[in-house]
Write a structure and sequence with these properties.
This protein has three domains: about 5-80, no CATH class; about 95-205, Arc Repressor Mutant, subunit A; about 210-250, no CATH class. The chain is built from ten helices and seven strands. It has helices at about 5-15, 25-35, 45-55, 65-80, 95-105, 110-125, 135-145, 150-165, 200-205, 230-255, and strands at about 95, 130, 170, 180, 190-195, 210-215, 220. Helix 2 (about 25-35) crosses helix 4, helix 3 packs across helix 4 (about 65-80) and helix 5 (about 95-105) runs antiparallel to helix 6. Bound molecules: zinc ion (ZN).
């Protein structure tokens, strides 16, 4: 999960006391600990604070002892500076013109979408161009962001193709989980990623002629003369809702 403005995100969550389903417990604990880092004098007092905040949340089957070790290690990590205590407060992640030029040279849309996403994620990570994933689930998250649906074998094929042609490199162990790309943060900013969703579609809609994104769901749609804003399924859903409203209004008028 990639959150551009962590400060705003966790502030809203702390107000509502609701954990979004897509947010993992580990990330939630980290965000709360960072948010209150300045209020605590040491790791122990911070972990007490985090536990107290967590108990206010309505988390199904939450039992403090299950997370005790995790909370302590995150709080200690913050005080020992192994974990950066700052919350991200970014408005966007930039993609530079040199990067776009490189992406545009790739042979097909799939490779372009994946490469664009890799630039976005690597820049988000701020880790010297490295994208380190623990398991294949982390890698499928990248492909999902890139709007590229492929089997595991085909995903590896695509990455191997990028590797063979020098666009990406791997860690010592070549298992596709540690990918490094060369960020080219020079020249002009060509595109600003404001939302870490449908990143592959954002590329197509902005850099491939004749396409744009559905305003509602982010799917790619062909630009036609009719200036439509939504994809077929979103416009169908919208007209169905309008129909219901119309019928309701009709009935009310009759009464
Ligand atoms: Zn749509």
């Amino acid at each position: 999960m990639y959150i551009l403005n962590e400060k705003e995100y966790i502030r809203n969550i702390l107000v509502s006391n609701q954990k979004p389903a897509e947010l993992s417990m580990g990330y939630l604990i980290t965000l709360i600990a960072k948010y209150y880092f300045n209020n605590a004098t040491d790791a122990d007092s911070l972990s007490e604070l985090v536990k107290k905040k967590l108990s206010d949340f309505e988390i199904e089957n939450y039992q403090e002892y299950t997370y005790h070790k995790r909370i302590i290690s995150i709080c200690q990590g913050l005080f020992s500076e192994n974990i950066d205590y700052r919350l991200k407060e970014r408005e966007f992640v930039p993609i530079y013109i040199d990067e776009i030029n490189l992406i545009n040279m790739l042979p097909d849309d799939r490779q372009k979408k994946v490469m664009f996403t890799l630039f976005a994620v690597a820049r988000y990570m701020e880790c010297g161009g490295w994208i380190n994933k623990k398991d294949s689930k982390g890698l499928s998250e990248i492909f999902k962001l890139a709007n590229v649906t492929l089997t595991c074998a085909k995903r590896n094929e695509l990455l191997h193709e990028l590797y063979k042609n020098g666009y990406i490199s791997f860690g010592k162990k070549i298992d596709n989980l540690n990918i490094q790309i060369e960020l080219k943060a020079s020249g002009e900013t060509s595109y600003k990623i404001h939302e870490f969703k449908n990143i592959g579609n954002q590329y197509i809609a902005n850099f491939k002629k004749g396409f744009k994104q559905c305003k509602k769901c982010g799917r790619v749609i062909k630009i036609t003369g009719t200036n439509k804003q939504y994809c077929n399924s979103c416009s169908k859903a919208a007209s169905a809702i309008n129909n219901i409203k119309r019928i309701k209004k009709c009935r009310e008028n009759k009464i």
